[in-house]
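Format notes (please read before filing issues)

Several people have asked whether sequences and structure tokens are stored in separate files. They are not. Every record keeps both together, in the order shown below: the sequence lines, then the token lines. Line labels are part of the format and must not be stripped during preprocessing.
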Amino acid sequence: MKKETKVFQAETKELLNLMVHSIYTHKEIFLRELISNASDAIDKLKFKALTDTHILDSSKELSISILPDTNSRTLTIKDTGIGMTFDEVVENIGTIAKSGSKAFLNSLEEAKKNGDLNIIGQFGVGFYSAFMVADKIILETKSPYSDKGVRWISAGEGSYDIEEIDKAEIGTSIILHIKDNDEDKEFLNEHKFRALIKKYSDYVKYPILFKEERLNSTKPIWKTPKNELKDEDYNEFYKSNFHDWQDPLLHFNFNIQGSLEYNAILFVPATPPYDLYTREYKRGLQLYTKNVFIMDKCEELIPQYFNFIKGLVDTDDLSLNISREILQKTQQLKNISKNLEKKIISEFEKLMSNDRDKYIKFWETFGKHIKFGIHENFGLNKEKLQNLLMF
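Then the structure lines:
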């Protein structure tokens, strides 16, 4: 069976150091990245099985498992996805090594200065974020297109070992040897990784299992057909997600298809948030990409005069930076924002015509925001908002 030690190019250690210490600001991001990779691997298996039916065992559950072991100080993320062959591991997991030329390092530094780090997914960056918390990573994988499995081991310092192994099950296990310090060992704590999965990966479409218990929710509300949802579903989702004890005054559910594709669920609170008129208040909608939580307050998605609106947007093909933590200000984001603004105004106009009493209630609570929108920027938005005024 094949067994090799491959040496990273000279700059790779420097590159890894940059990724671990400079690009990501929150160590906890590693779990989101590995779970997202696992979900992608299952997607790929299902896609391949459309034309290659023998590779998918219909009796086997497509899932992601979390296996902590405090004795060995390991955290394992296991999936039943497509797996990889020997060459694919070198190609995909060793991509940093392959791309670790001085030119790439220079371009990465340059991109970092300019805030233009739109290369996530091209250089195995998500996988390598695990070195923030692990001093060694072991990857074991098997592809349906190979008789043998593959084991890849690296401490992220200059080389990696790769060998063929006997492995029966198709899929991938990533075993993180967690660093021996209190801060990193916390990720082995059940309470900690449950909270992180709830925060970032709650709506990943495959079950995330711990001791056969599913940790993530089922289908997200914004991907559920509208005719299957009742007011109670919206109200419960709003109260649990946005920490309000009252039902919202209004909710809007948008499912936009075509050249611009996104799902959005928005809420108008019954009463203004307690800090709405303070300097500390930040407007913005939660942002998801492919059901994975990206950020809590994306200001670009909502204009200042609608800052009281809470909610979320999920889109599949948004341009993110290398760490997915800071959103690139892409044209698509601007397009979603403009589209949302039009949709919200249209919904308020309909409400004024169809349920005037409810609109009056809205106006009494948030009418000053509409007036502000009309005055803002020397009346730039007055044409858009004039039909929402009441006298």
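For reference, the curators noted about this record: The longest strand covers residues 134-142. The CA atoms of residues 54 and 144 lie 9 Å apart.
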